[in-house]
Write a structure and sequence with these properties.
Beta-lactamase Inhibitory Protein, Chain:B, domain 1; alpha+beta; elongated; 4-stranded antiparallel sheet
């Protein structure tokens, strides 16, 4: 019983660590992809990213804002199931299961807002925010 408890604890820890690592690595990869735009001219940025949703003057430069919508993440579900499996009296029995899942809440939109600062006609820096900022554009 103690071995089973330790095994389950280790599995839970591995899942938790893996689940937390993915979003950070996606954001890091996105940051690295954006770094390739450093020093690139405005016309190259517009050719690849298209027309920005907003332009804002900032001192001697301007911010170009792009929003990429990636659909929606389905809402979480709550489930209930019944099943069985057992050993007894020298016999093995296997049972089936019945499950029911229902969504809780609404789908969450997945989007990424990326802003590029252009100074002297070239990309000087950028920012990004949103749950969809893990895919390279």
């Amino acid at each position: 019983m103690l071995a089973t408890t330790r095994f389950l604890a280790l599995c839970g820890a591995a899942i938790a660590i893996g689940g937390c690592a993915a979003p950070a690595s996606n954001r890091d990869a996105y940051e690295q992809a954006l770094a390739q735009w450093q020093g690139q001219p405005e016309d190259a940025l517009r050719a690849r990213w298209g027309a920005p949703v907003a332009e804002e003057q900032a001192g001697h430069g301007k911010w170009l804002t792009y929003v990429v919508n990636g659909g929606a993440v389905p809402p979480p579900t709550v489930g209930f199931s019944i099943g069985g499996f057992g050993f007894g009296g020298g016999r093995t029995s296997v049972g089936g299961g019945v499950g029911l899942a229902a969504p809780i809440g609404q789908a969450a939109p997945v989007a990424c807002t990326t802003r590029f600062l252009l100074e002297d006609g070239k990309v000087s820096t950028w920012t990004f925010d949103g749950s969809g900022c893990g895919k390279v554009n």
